[in-house]
Every structure is written in C-alpha cells, then in structure tokens.
Amino acid sequence: MTKNLTDNLFQDVQVAVVIPCFKVTKQIVNVISAIPSGVWRIYVIDDACPDGSGKMVNKNVTDPRAKVIFHSKNLGVGGAVITGYKAAIFDGADVIVKVDGDGQMDPLLIPDFISPIIIGEADYTKGNRFFDLEEIRIMPKLRLFGNAVLSLMAKLSTGYWNLFDPTNGFTAIHADVAKQLPFAKISERYFFETDILFRLNTLRAVVIDVPMSAKYGEEVSNIKISNIIGEFLFKHIRNFFKRIFYNYYLRDLSLASIELPLGVLLFLFGAGFGGYSWYDSARVNEVTPAGTVMLAALPILMGLQLILAFLGNDIASIPRRPRQKMFRQLSSYNKGKNK
Asked: Most buried among 19, 116, 180, 241, by the most CB within 10 A?
C-alpha cells in the first residue's frame, strides 16, 4: 500500500492499537516503535506479566501515543484485549486493531487491516497466514496441522465458512461493532479469537481475511496443546449448537430449520435400525433380507441429503452486508434518547 494512500486512511479516523503483553519484554519495544505514525493511540495491556512488560514500556518508550494499563491478575490474552477494547471505546476510537506483543505480526500491515473497515466493506478483519503457499513451507508442521483442524471446527461453530486460520490474533474491528459485543461472555483466554467470531456471527457482522506473513523467531509460545484441546473441542461444540439455535430457530425460521433435525433423525433411525438388524441376523446366522437393508439404507441416504442441504444453506448464509452503519445509528439513537 502506497504512502499517500496509507496517510489518507488515517485522516479523520481515530485508529487505536491494543497490544496484550505477557512475557514479551524482548520484543514489545520494537513492536511499538514499528506502529505507523497515523495510529491515534496505543494501549499496552500488561496482563500481570511476571517479566514486567508494562514497566519496561513506561521506562523505554517515549511515544506519547502509548498508554500502559496494568492487570492485578492474569486474565489471559482475551481478557487483556477486552480491557484494551473498553479503553479505546471509552476514549473515542473509531477502529481498534489488535497486535500481539511477541513480534510475529508486522505493524506495517495495519493499513491493510483497517482499509476494508474504513471504506465500509467489513466490520471485522483478521489475518490469514495461509494465502501464500510458498510461505506455508516455513510454518512449523505441527502448527500447520493444528490450524487446519481448528479452521474446520471454527467454520462449523462460527458460521464463517469463508475464513481460515481462526486463531490468528492480528485483527481489526469497527468500534461501533465492538460496542455490541457481550464482553462478559467472551472467552478470556486462548479461545478468544474463535469465540469473538461466534459472537460476531450472531450480530451478522461481515468478517474478511487479510493475507499476511508470520515471523517465527526466538519467542516461546505460552500455549500447551494438551491443556487446551479438550477446552477447544467443548467450546466449539457448545458454540455450534448455540449458533444453530440463535440463527435458525430463535431469530428466524426457514426450510433449513427443518432440514437439519429431520436429516439427523432419519440418519440416526436408519443407522440404528440397520445396526440392530445386522446384529439380529448375525446372531441367528441368517442373511438379512433385501427389504430390511433398503429400509435401513433409505433413511440414511435421505438424512445425509437433508444434512448436506442444510450445510449448503448455512454456507450460503455467510453475512455479506456490513452492520457498522446500523450499529452507529443505533448508538446515536440511544445517546439521544438518554439525554
């Protein structure tokens, strides 16, 4: 993105950057120094960092845009970002960008993240490290596999079938959309990025991926896969059923509202009946009659067809109309009403 275009993006728009900090003393100063000059304010959230990241920023960073907020106890990356969101909204930010403090994200890409929001094409943007197939080769293989699995699970639980790399923490959000998020209900730890996508889908917010590269240096990840796999699986399943209920039964009823339960019932009936018939025939050493086989196969096939039809409808229902303008008008209306 050219310099003139970048400068124009920041005109008349107050862009805030939120940086959650935990054990990033080696990288945080360089991250802050790389943030474009057009950014209005920088919120550094010291999440009870044992290494004193916040104190280091206060001591070594002279940038007047930087403001350090300290947590008395560790809330996790999500809790730190939510603190930054609240501070930025209170101070009057228009767009809020979240950048990690470990140096893996290039702050010079901030214009790429905020431009779709500023021109009204999206409500929320997030990074995607999988656009460039050549750069995927440098990604650790275990991380590559893990992201592929998590992306599939996230598509089901969030409803954003057009997105990949759901745990990517380089994001930007319009402040009027952020105001509508139920911060008290959003996961505060490593499930934060995926959980916020689920919440955005319930708001019907438009989310798009932004191609980016990741830098892997000496930083050490604080995530232990064995500690989060069970939590992630449970929360993905929970969010999936919540989303289906909210979107297909609470807020709207459509043909898809019938296709899913009917398809599941037919599939389970066919599988159950077929399994029982096979067991009963095997027990008496008899061949299962063709009619019985068809009676089991037919509901299974019909059930699968209905489930696939529901998935097709769900994929086609990805939010495409940005909600920022509507939420801004709603916010202005509520302010006028409270005066």
From this structure: 19
Residues 6+ apart with CB under 8 A from 7: 38
Domain residue ranges in the chain: 3-247, 253-338
Alpha carbons 78 and 57: distance in angstroms, whole number? 21
Please state, rounded to an integer, the average pLDDT across all residues of the chain.
88
Q: Would you say 125 and 200 are in contact if contact means Cβ atoms under 8 Å apart?
A: no
Q: What share of the chain is helix, strand, coil (3-state, %, to 5)?
A: 55, 10, 35
Q: Which residues contact 310 (CB under 8 A, 6 or more apart)?
A: 256, 259, 260, 263
Cα distance between residue 253 and residue 256, in whole Å:
8
Measure the CA–CA gap between 284 and 328, rounded to whole angstroms. Answer: 70
CB atoms within 10 A of CB 135: 14
Instruction: Collect all residues with Cβ–Cβ distance below 8 Å to 250 and sequence separation of at least 6.
Output: none
- What's residue 148's pLDDT? 81
> Sorting pLDDT into bands at 50, 70 and 90, what band is 213?
confident
Comparing 246 with 11, the larger pLDDT belongs to 246
Structure-token pair, residue 108: 């010079």
> Residue 73: which of 105, 48, 99, 39 has the closest Cα?
48
Question: Count H helices, E strands: the chain?
Answer: 13, 7
Please tell me the distance from the alpha carbon of residue 198 to that of residue 200, in angstroms, as a whole number.
5
Q: What is the pLDDT of residue 38?
A: 92
Class of the domain covering 3-247 = alpha beta
Question: Is there a contact between 328 and 176 (Cβ–Cβ < 8 Å)?
Answer: yes
